[in-house]
Amino acid sequence: MSAEGLERAGEGPDPEDPITVTIGATVPTGFEHSAAEEVGEKIGTDVRISKDRGRIYFKTTHVNLPQIHRLRSVDNLFVVVEEFSDYCFKDTKEETLEDFQKLAAKLPWKWPLEVWKINNSLKKKRSRQKIIQENGSEDSCSETLVKREDSHTEAEGSHTKSKQSSEISSDLDEKKDDVQDVKDGKKMISAETASASGNGDVVEGGKDCEGPEAEGSSKLLKFRVTCNRAGDKHNFTSNDAARDFGGAVQDLFQWKPDMTRFDIEVLLNIHNNEVVVGIALTEESLHRRNITHFGPTTLRSTLAYGMLRLCNPQISDVIVDPMCGSGAIPLEGALEWPHSFYMAGDNNGMAVNRTGNNINHIHKKRQSKEGTAWGLPIDTVQWDLCNLPMKTGSVDIIITDMPFGKRMGSKKKNWDLYPSCLKEMGRVCRPGSGKAVLLTQDKKCFAKAVSKMGYLWRKSHTVWVNVGGLHAAVYLLKRTGLRTLEQRKSFW
């Protein structure tokens, strides 16, 4: 359990030593194993997949925070305060909620709060570096920061906060001096950490607590508690748990509750008998990283990464998304597997324009960071999916988000579309070694189409995923060795 990593007993680790905590991450449902593999490769730590689908947990130190924020498969991150694998809920609602009220004072808050502060100092430093880069001077940076703080104070609602959060999250992609930044940030806030009791719990901080926007001030933190609950045997609601546990957190730290413009978000995740208390490290999902021009059914970047990882791109592979929409899949591939070449096509001219705009945005973003940047290995084209302007057997991987027949297309049209597109994909895909990774919610129609095209494709693997509340599937198909003699019709 995470309490072991946080060292509840004794004085705990020296402030200059790396702080070891458990990090939790939400990932696209169905791609938990892919996310675990990525964490193992990039962070070098073992990963535990939660019983609650869509979550993984791993132990690491605060030094790895920049690399953790650059993970491509995770949506949201949080640091675990305490985890109860078999929490004993009481028989009545009143007794259960009373236990939640008592729970807050028993938790080891010290090191998770320390990591949260380091995370915020890192985000502030990245934000300042970006403003200096855009304005060209420290003075301009100071003026911009003052204006933003004034705007944040006067604005109603959370619009300004969301805008700043987006800028801060994008800055976490920078790789320069990451480890040193974390160390500097830790030294900067170590003296500001709330005083701890002998067992490692943070005692009431009151006005001594600092918010991420008011370094060196005595401003109270604003917070909210979010309860995510799954299970049908609970005698309380999510709102009940959040209200009573949040009240206890407020009494403990004297923080100010604010549901919209909060500085810190405390998470209470309940899945059947499993209870996890955490502190959020991301203000918005990390999947909002590549796309600025959205279409009606834009795919999340984290889901696109999982699909790409499933097909395992190799150097010099030609990868085609014949129904690219906003270009989420080829953009994710070009950034993570840049040694392959990507073709993004669609029959809709507006979709092709959106993809081009998203590519230009990424290119300009890279140029502003690096001064000079090579173009992305990606091209766009408008075409007919069932008559692709490509040579027979010239493509290594086909990967796309097919129309579900809900917001895009119709289930009736899918009965003609799916067999036709599988046939054309089989023509352009390399016999014997080619692959296709296809996402669809119209599983019945797809199964019939694959059965009909069995001489071209064989189903290798299926991943069941949740896409916007819809139960969908990602199919990995392998191209058979049969060489098609049929040539395509003239595209022109």
Automatic annotation (TrEMBL):
Organism: Lepisosteus oculatus (Spotted gar)
SMART domains for this protein: THUMP
Subcellular location, record wording: Cytoplasm
GO CC term, one of those recorded: cytoplasm
PROSITE patterns with a match to the protein in the record: THUMP, UPF0020
Chain spans, region Disordered: 127-214
Main location: cytoplasm
Compositionally skewed regions (Basic and acidic residues) per UniProt: 145-159, 172-189
Domain THUMP residues, every copy: 173-281
Name of the protein this chain belongs to: THUMP domain containing 3
CDD domains named in the record: THUMP_AdoMetMT
Gene3D superfamilies, per the entry: 3.30.2130.30, Vaccinia Virus protein VP39
Family classification: Belongs to the methyltransferase superfamily.
GO aspect biological process, one term: methylation
Entry's Gene Ontology molecular function annotations: RNA binding; RNA methyltransferase activity
Keywords: Cytoplasm, Methyltransferase, RNA-binding, Transferase, tRNA processing
